[in-house]
Design a protein that fits this description.
Chains A, B: This is Thioredoxin family protein. Chains A, B: InterPro entries: Thioredoxin-like_sf (IPR036249). Two copies of one chain form a homodimer. With 75 residues, the first copy, chain A, is of the alpha+beta class. The first copy, chain A, has a single domain, classed as Glutaredoxin. In chain A, 32% of the residues lie in helices and 33% in strands. Chain A has three helices and four strands, in the order E-H-E-H-E-E-H. Chain A binds chain B through residues 4, 16-17, 20-21, 23-26, 56-58, 60-66, and chain B through 4, 16-17, 20-21, 23-26, 56-58, 60-66.
């Protein structure tokens, strides 16, 4: 894939990071897994342990700051 | 400022994140505070608590994954 995917859960830390990432990185899809819960499994499969996180085009996961653990999001 | 600054300490987590960041973000200055120790104070003043971390052009700090705490770097 050639785009990055930014996963977040709508928390303040996530929103702040999203703002920065969208300014810095091109071709980013933004996914709110707090709302689009069907994409939680996809995020976990990508290796995401906490949000916000950015999955790079080559599949690496960059966990950014710390908003919420996946366990918190899954609830 | 218009560029971002990526601070790291040369650890494997840092090197991997650096590779990703340089691919995704334009105009990034890379600083190895493990080598350029006189820049540790600058990193701390920017709000960096662990490396690797990216300081955005507007001064926000994005802590990325987790390589080492500043306490570990300072030794």
């Amino acid at each position: 894939m050639s785009k990055s995917i930014f996963y977040h859960a709508g928390c303040p830390v996530c929103v702040s990071a999203e703002h920065d990432i969208l300014n810095l990185v091109k071709d980013v899809e933004v996914v709110n897994i707090g709302e689009d819960r069907f994409r939680i499994a996809e995020a976990q499969k990508a290796g995401i342990q906490s949000v916000p996180a950015l999955v790079t085009p080559n599949g690496n996961v960059l966990h950014i700051n710390f908003g919420a653990s996946m366990a918190d999001v899954i609830g």
